[in-house]
Amino acid sequence: MTFLLSLLLQMQVGSTPDAGAAAADSTATAANAAANAAAADLSLIDLIVKGGWIMLPLFLLSFVSLYIIIERYITIRRAASVPESFMPGIRNLMVKGDLQGAKMLCAQTATPLARMIEKGIRRIGLPLKDIETSVENVGKVEIARLEKNISILGIIAGIAPMLGFVGTIIGVIKIFYAISATGDFGIAQISGGLYTKMVTSATGLIVGIIAHIGYHWLSIMVERLVFRMENSAIEFMDILQDN
User: Fold this and answer.
1) How many domains does the chain have?
2) At residue 126, what are phi and psi to the nearest 5 degrees?
3) Is residue 35 domain-resident?
4) Any domain includes 18
5) Residue 184, SS3?
6) What is the pLDDT of residues 47-70, one digit of tens each?
7) Is residue 1 part of a domain?
8) What angle do CA 111, 113, 115 make, to 5 degrees?
């Protein structure tokens, strides 16, 4: 009997360290789970707040970029909506000598191309060189209207990443200030500065990329419309020479 009691005591003592280790592992697992849950709960707004005041001008630039892209896209699309039958209709009316009908057709179309052709029709009777100059001048004015504010996108494409870099510098300053204030180099001292660096740099790059794409996309749309206007101007001058 005494032998059995001592054996049971030895087994209980031997199992105690294992139980303690298991409890420690459970505690560590719970702590890791809580940390992961906290990281998962970090929202977009929290990240923006971590970026600091530099996020305000970046958001302003992003709003301006999107506004210009949408507004210019709609304007250019409307300007390019010229029916394929427009120039053949102008030719037929001018061959018939119906200049008033040609003017009405231009007024009904109401596009940069139509306004350019209408100016040429109104100058009929003058030397061809003067008519051509008038058409070219109206075309330049219309192109300038189409390109309005597009150059701002190019400026934003250069400024936004630079502002993000400023945020990176601010983040580095925060890190070194925290280290000098505490005399310790650890996660607590560098985490805040790293948040500022990463968030502002990423935001600046995203805004710059959007503005860069919008600038070149709208420029291509304007170039296509300009090419079409030039061809129509040449065709209009050919009609005058034939008549």
Assistant:
1) 1
2) -85, 165
3) no
4) no
5) coil
6) 556 656 777 888 899 999 999 999
7) no
8) 70
